[in-house]
Amino acid sequence: MGVRMTIISRKRLGRLVNHRHPALILATTLLTLTACAFGYQAHGSLSDVADELRGKGYPGSTAGGGRFTLADRAGSLSCDGESYPPSAATTPGQCAGESGTGMVRCSDGRAIPIRWQAITCRSWQGSGEDARGNRLEFRVERR
Known about the structure:
The chain is α+β, with helices and mostly antiparallel strands. The chain has one domain. The protein contains 2 helices and 8 strands; from the N terminus they run H-H-E-E-E-E-E-E-E-E. The chain is extended.
């Protein structure tokens, strides 16, 4: 009793691999859109910018901290922030109250040192001030 194997020509294999089924494409697209709708959302304000800033958050490893992006609606200003792992922790295993520092760099050249504090294990908020005294307030949370 042997195993019977079908040999597929290279040409046929290429057609099978390159064939894209419409239902598969639709399912993949829906999963991608759904994944983008949830996750960590960031929002904030800069005292010299009229619009609210919105973006995404990307939590760090189990050590804490993370990254976030913020941009105005017009797309004329975008900022990339990094919250370094906590320098102050509360009760081991608890996130609320952890705090630390970080840096936000914006497309207009400003660099804003920040201080952040964890609200829960899935949200943190912070603030900072640029060299001209413009204040940044932000919050990152899971939605």
